Amino acid sequence: MVDIQTISIVIASASVVAGVIYYAIEIKHQTKIRQTDLAIRLNPALNMNGFEFQQLALKLSTLEYKDYDDFVKKYGPLTSEKPESMAIHAVSNFFEGIGLLLKRNLVGIDMVGDYYGESAVFAWEKVKPLIEGFRKQYNMPRLWEPFEYLYDELKKREQRGVNSG
User: CA 116 to CA 161: how far, in whole Å?
Assistant: First the structure.
């Protein structure tokens, strides 16, 4: 027969175990929040103000080129400090940061898709030939890989039929 004292010991022990599990989960959650905050603070592209980013994104959207070689011929190399190259780098670096947060599971695809979806897809499709050409020319096959990951995940989300908003 189980007495009241044994039952109270079992309940107290279970409460301690539940508390420890809750605390461990909470620490993991807080660590994730701190890592995300640090990643955002360290990335200057993620700290651009809205107006500055819109100017760069608009500049990118107005560029006309057929491929990497055509871009270089019209606007100069991507390594230049010309406004066209700077817009490509700034927008790509911005989405690179978002892609990295997504890849590391620090943000979810639904939040990213709802907030940046169409802009990120448009930007990747616009710069893809430039990135591929740059990767090849400078033997940097992983350049802007998280940006490409972001694009791929957004396209998968789109194929699943998840709508923005």
Answer: 16
Contacts of residue 131, defined as CB under 8 A and 6 or more positions apart, other chains included, come to 92, 143, 144, 147, 148
The 10s digit of each residue's pLDDT in 142-155 is 999 999 999 999 99
Within 10 angstroms of residue 60's Cβ, the number of other Cβ atoms is 20
Contact 79, 73 (CB under 8 A): no
Residue 49: phi, psi to the nearest 5?
Answer: -75, 160
Name the nearest CA neighbour of 45 among 142, 123, 125: 123
List the chain domain ranges: 1-42, 49-159
Verdict on whether the full-model pTM lies above 0.85: no
Which amino acid, one-letter code, is at 46?
L
Cβ atoms of 46 and 98 closer than 8 Å: yes
Task: Tell me if 65 sits within 8 A of 74, measured CB to CB.
Answer: yes
Helices 145-159 & 83-103 angle (0-180, nearest 10):
60
Whether residue 41 contacts residue 47, with contact meaning beta carbons closer than 8 Å, is answered with yes
